[in-house]
Each structure stands twice: as C-alpha cells, then as structure tokens.
From TrEMBL:
Region feature Disordered, mapped onto this chain: 337-362
Annotated TM spans: 22-43, 55-78, 90-113, 168-189, 204-228, 249-269, 289-310
Keywords: Membrane, Transmembrane, Transmembrane helix
Biased composition (Polar residues): 338-355
Annotated membrane topology: Multi-pass membrane protein
Domain of life (superkingdom): Eukaryota
Record's protein name: THH1/TOM1/TOM3 domain-containing protein
A GO cellular component annotation in the UniProt record: vacuolar membrane
Database matches in PANTHER family: OS01G0751300 PROTEIN (PTHR31142:SF4), TOBAMOVIRUS MULTIPLICATION PROTEIN 1-LIKE ISOFORM X1 (PTHR31142)
Amino acid sequence: MLSEGAAGRRCLPTQGVAAEAVLAAVDGAVAVVAFLQLLRIHLRNQQLGWTRQKIFHIMIGSSNIGYLAYFISTLVATCEGWQCWSHGCGFVLMVCPQILFLAAFLLLVSFWVDLCHQANDEEEEDDEHGCNEALLEKGKHKQNPLHVDSCRRCCFPRSVHVGSRQKFVILVIALTFISMIAFAVLIWIGRGKNPIDSSLVARVYLYIFSVAMLLLGGVLACYGVLLFSKMSNVRSEMASTEMWKVASLAAVAVICFTSSAVLSLVTNIPLQVLSYCHLAPSDCLSSSAFIFLYYFIGSSVPSGFVLWIMREMPPRLVADSDRPAPSTIVTFIRDRSTPAQNPQWRTSVASSQNKGLKASPI
C-alpha cells in the first residue's frame, strides 16, 4: 500500500521505493564508470581532442545521470505532491535520458556503417581527405606514421569536421528533442479544460520511442552481422577479438531493446511512474517489478555491457619528443639473402596491413 508522508501525503509504496532506489544506484554506478573511463582515455591521449569514443562515454554517462535524477525526483515528487510532476515536468525528466541513450547508440551505429562502407569510400577519401580525418568520421588514422603528427595538428586542435552520417545522427537527435518539447507542451495544456488528453499524448510518444528502439535494435543486428562477416575474413588475433565483441554487443542490444520495447508497448509501464498514486494497492507490486525490468533491461544492461567491452584503453600515441632519433649509421654491406625493401614497398605493405586490421568497432 501507499505510505503516508510527513504531512499526510501519499508516498510511493515500499516496492516502488525499492525498485527506484536500486535503479538509481545502478545508473549512478554506470555513470561513474563511464566518466572514469572517459578520464582515463583523455589522460592517455590528450592530444587527440574529442574523439567519437570520448563523446560516446559522455553520452552514456550523461544518460545515466539523467536516469539517476529522474528516479530520485520520482521519489521526492510523489511524496511531496509536486503539481508539475504530472503536468509535464516528470515527462521531460523521463524522456531526456532516453534521448541521450538513443543518441549514444545511434553514434555507435554510424561508426559501424562507416566501417562496413569504408572499403567503397577509401579511394575517394584517401585522395581528398588525407590529413583531414574527421573527428567523428573514422575510428583510426590511416596516415603514414611519418605524417601522423602534422595531420593531428591539422585536424584536432583547430577545427572539428563532422561526417555526413554523424550529421544525420545530430539531426535525428535535434528533431527528437524538439518533438519532446512539443509533447511536453501538449501534456501541460491537456491538464486544463480542453479536448487534449494528456495521457493519450504521453502514450503516443511512448509508442513512437518504443518503435524507434525496435528499429535501432534491428539496425544494430544487421550491421553487426555484416561487420562480423567482413571481420571474419581477416586472419589476425585482433580481428578475432573485435569480431566477437561486435557479435556480443549486437546480440545484447537486440535482446534488451526488443524486450523493453515490447514491455512498453504492451503495458505502458514507463508512464505508470508518473501516476503511482493512482494505482490500486494490488497493482503496486507488479508495476514496480515491470518498471524495474523495463529500465534495467532497456538501459542499465546495454550501458554497462558496452562500457565493459570498451574497458581496454586505446594505444598511446607517441609525441615527437619521445620518438627515437633517426640513425646516422650508413650500411655499406648488406646480406644478399635479404631482398631490398624500398620505401614504396614498405608503404604498400603497411597500407595493406592497416586496411586489414581496422580500428576497433567498439
């Protein structure tokens, strides 16, 4: 049953408090891990500036901080009887972390799309963008090691170039935020005396978001399979490791996104957090269990899993001052059994190896 607050207000049931507290603790822990990994990556390669990996960690961490604030606000708003909670404020706090979570995995999808279509675009990109590697466009540098520092100075400190697929991600997220504001305004207006049904507006948004998560899971599955098949043709230990990371992440994302979306479409469970006080005592236990499953499976598990498989640090870049001085020894006698290796041959070999061993898709 609903417990009474200090001033006779109806607070969350014990089951609801337990579910919200556990979810808040889990999301807080995931946010701490995300920002700690971000700090480690940044301290390891400070000269790279903002890479896609760093931005992904920021989005995951910010999303989980948003969920943490939402669950804590739910406990306080229900017990204190905030009038604005059911008039749009609760809806905004519920949706903002969902949008950040969606943006993080859309960014991951754009990276996988880049890798899958990289073979078709390499010739054009190598000719036109040799030293202008996009900040969010590729997961690694394809330049010759002798020119890596000059290209880095060209790219990162001075300007930020966003790839076309990342521009599409930014556009989708911007439109999602605009639609969220529009739905929140309609919910606020619907609380007055007018034909607008606030609960119907919230359900419409919930259905749209659930379908979007289903589509995102399908896209991750498709490109995960495609990337898995491409990487299976590369015979190397690194490719084998990254191949199974891609497969496991795609499988977890599909299972979690599909489960949470179906649960949301069938039960409308996320909206019940906004109306705990209107639930019958017999429904409190089942609603609390469904709410916990929805947020834990749909957000906490994918976020924690992707952070776990991204726990390995990227290779440290060596600055010019740390490079060994070029040798001044001239060799006058060479072994005839060793074939001559001219610079062009070495460059072609290095290029083929770099194309075979792509950057980590995770």
